[in-house]
Write a structure and sequence with these properties.
The protein is mainly alpha-helical and 90 residues long. It folds into two domains: 32 residues; 51 residues. Helices cover 63% and strands 0% of the residues.
Length: 90
């Protein structure tokens, strides 16, 4: 893995455990959601895209559990991603 998340914290008045939670959340996003590009540059656009990605992740996790699918979430999300891309060109 590479270095840090690329975010610089300038508000040193925030408590250290809070900063740790932010860093862990950013790391989880990078490892699990695979957001390659943010399509908007405003804070609202980035928050909306992260929220959408988390929602999709949770819905897939619930579906996996309900249907008792043995494949990993990573595998299921990869298959869905390939299906979405193929569907755009057919």
């Amino acid at each position: 893995m590479g270095g840090g998340s690329g975010i610089v914290y300038t508000d040193m008045s925030l408590p250290s455990p809070f900063l740790l939670r932010i860093e862990l959340f950013i790391r989880w996003i990078k490892q699990n959601l695979r957001i390659k590009t943010f399509y908007g540059t405003s804070e609202n656009a980035v928050k909306a895209q992260i929220g959408f990605a988390v929602s999709v992740y949770v819905l897939v996790a619930i579906t996996k559990k309900q249907l008792k699918i043995e494949a990993s979430l990573h595998t299921i999300l990869k298959v869905l991603s390939v299906q979405r891309i193929q569907g755009q060109y057919t």
